[in-house]
């Protein structure tokens, strides 16, 4: 079954990229709440003794690089803002509230307060429609922002001093055996066109893990690293095969490798965030820079940078 619903086909020509604008980098930015819990930021209520340091050190490097890039906006696609019909864009100018992870509320109760780049958000809605996608502007004040959006944004920019645009995941594939990523390619092209049209310098974040098979029993101390390990060797090997492709081949090779990873593992790449990211970057001819990999409750998580 198709994952999205098409409007009447329209051919949208991507506008030329203005000087100084465009997508300057993209990151695979996993969002497990444990990373923020371990980071102990003032916005999160629960306190920890640390944990998952290697992945958090990878995010330290992302923060340094993003500071150097000095983007106008962070654009995030997150698998837990689930919309069953079409692609939604958060157009609320000033989202504020408390985001709670429903399975781990004892780890993640995060008070957020940030600014949306409304002009770009509205341009994305229009561009998605122009590319034949069903799209909606989410303008309801007070709608809770999901933890996958907050998790990626906090880990990349805990100062929250860069405007944000967040995009929902049309998550039909989670409910069917066959993933369809073609729509995410279109969504990526539409995202690139809107960013070029508005002249923004944008950093893109794909907020998903890799393999997603996890423990079903939590340790008494959640950050007990003696209990943290790959849950299943086949899942781990699927992650390593994907990462070897990332490290050794131009990103176009991932067009075939991502579906293979989905078929071989309980993959969160099925949500389409990674395909959206690479399509928006126009499938760079370079390899990705793997900054870190680690498990979180057994799921595989990698922090990776691509430059256009």
From TrEMBL:
<dbReference type="Pfam" id="PF02900">
    <property type="entry name" value="LigB"/>
</dbReference>
<feature type="domain" description="Extradiol ring-cleavage dioxygenase class III enzyme subunit B">
    <location>
        <begin position="27"/>
        <end position="297"/>
    </location>
</feature>
<protein>
    <submittedName>
        <fullName>tRNA U-34 5-methylaminomethyl-2-thiouridine biosynthesis protein</fullName>
    </submittedName>
</protein>
<feature type="region of interest" description="Disordered">
    <location>
        <begin position="1"/>
        <end position="21"/>
    </location>
</feature>
<dbReference type="InterPro" id="IPR004183">
    <property type="entry name" value="Xdiol_dOase_suB"/>
</dbReference>
